[in-house]
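Fold sample X.
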Amino acid sequence: MKVGIIGCGYVGLVTGVGFALKGHKVTSVEIDKSRVGQLTKGIVPFHEPGVQKGLKSVLKQGNIRISSSMDDIADCEVILICVQTPPQPDGVINLQILESATRNLVSVLEQSPRLRTVVVRSTVIPGTTDKLVAPILQGNSSALAKKTAIAFNPEFLREGSALQDFLNPDRIVIGTKSGMAKKMLKKLFLPFKASIVWTTPSTAELAKYASNTLLATLISFSNEIARVCERTPDTDVEDVLGVVHRDRRFSFPEGKGSLTAGILSYLKAGCGFGGSCLPKDLSALIAYARSVDQETPLLQAVATVNVGQSLRIIDMVSKALGGLEKRKVAVLGVAFKGGTDDLRESPGLRIVDALLSKQAQVFIYDPLVKPVALEGYKNKRVTIASKLMEALQYADACIVTSNSPEFKTLRRWMKQEKNNHKVIIDGRRILKVSGDLESNYYAIGRARKPV
């Protein structure tokens, strides 16, 4: 099929490359001409495993083209809108970019007599597809309304495995009231093995928020249990949640054994959640519920626990060092998690900001984040390290805020005699520490043994 993609950001690019890898002919439109130039050369401006390799492959095959002109998607059978819906200070999402893209699309659709389906893939609150997008595309022209179907198709992509998630989805959710849309989207998703869940646009829109806020809730729940463990002798949140993980309701038979549900990876204590989705979607759902006069005390508590987790880590390192003023602290991992370079809503950066407010000197290291992305932190009290040992060299303490595999090598560093007085705050529970190394080792959710 001829597929058009509006927006070559994170979701749009993965979607375009994914459909092209499945054999569709894709035209992706991006208004940022410098990004168009990069992508045309096969250069992806963010880190996401497999995407750059995939882009180069489909460019070579001729299955994708990158353009800055909407006119180039006029003849596409399916057009997916993948633009940002950024949060406002009150949590309400800003729909201006989506509205603008939709209005610009109208004149393009009028150029061709082709029947086509327009799919909203941006994350939006319930009612957006029906009450904003559909009236723009269908409201002013009966002819356009007859040849244009509307649908909503949420993405469930995890940063660090987004392309694989796209190519091998666990479910495909499509909200539409149009028979024509169903027919065309069945054809679009024919190369995929997952079953399609057909529903209304509003249900699909709300399901995306429900899915992400559940994940956020599991993380905050885990961190609250971790806080209880820290005050309870002879307990460790890893062991406590490990027992919960073994509940048969979280697993299913597989041969002679069983497989645990992937969702359990979110039932794990750490620094809190960040990134482009969970914080934004949690705030947006709270704001939407408020707009329909519905209180959300549980969801608000999830947000409160998440922000408080970073402050708890600051309290932990402050007590271990006897204060933070003029102390040297390495923060390892400032992307919101390992396997990505995304700094949005990063717990690591919240910790950096808090350390600076306490007058500490900070050394930042992340194996995937480019120094240019941290330019705003360059001052006399912040050093951007290019290597792990460079960040640790002068540090009185280090805080592990990302689950990057490289940080597991810290055990070897801890064993060196010159470092045995230095404090380790394991905010991601990636280290296995015992014996003499425990004296200066502090971990989320682990009761301290008497020294």
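Fold sample Y, listed below.
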Amino acid sequence: MLLHLFPFSESFYQPASLPDPNSPPLQNLNLCTVSGWGVTWMYSQSLSPELRSVEVELFTSCWNYYPFRITNNMICAGSRSGGRDSCQGDSGGPLVCNGKFEGIVSWGIGCAISYYPGVYTKVRNYIGWMNQIGSKGQ
């Protein structure tokens, strides 16, 4: 199964800002972008030699796909029809929604399998902690 990934060009490089933890929650099926150097299909052994990205849809009802494994500190994104997802080697990479760094690639079942979206750490839940740690370094 080949993922639909596209190489970055220099015109795509721009920083993503951190989300406001008090902003309205993300909506179901919002389009987001995940990027990384991971494999481009599930059974590949070779990481991508270049940074790649793919648009994915946000799934706000993550627990419907992974009962008993999801916490409030996680969000899911992928494609209902499959074919678009993060994969092995992308862990730790960003999930950007509307220019905001909303998620960190964490885990999933396989790659790009329909109705098994990728699971991401929900960054907005850690903003207070990040600010606290950042202020200690000043």
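Sample Y note: The two ends are 48 Å apart (CA to CA).
Also: The longest helix spans residues 127-136.
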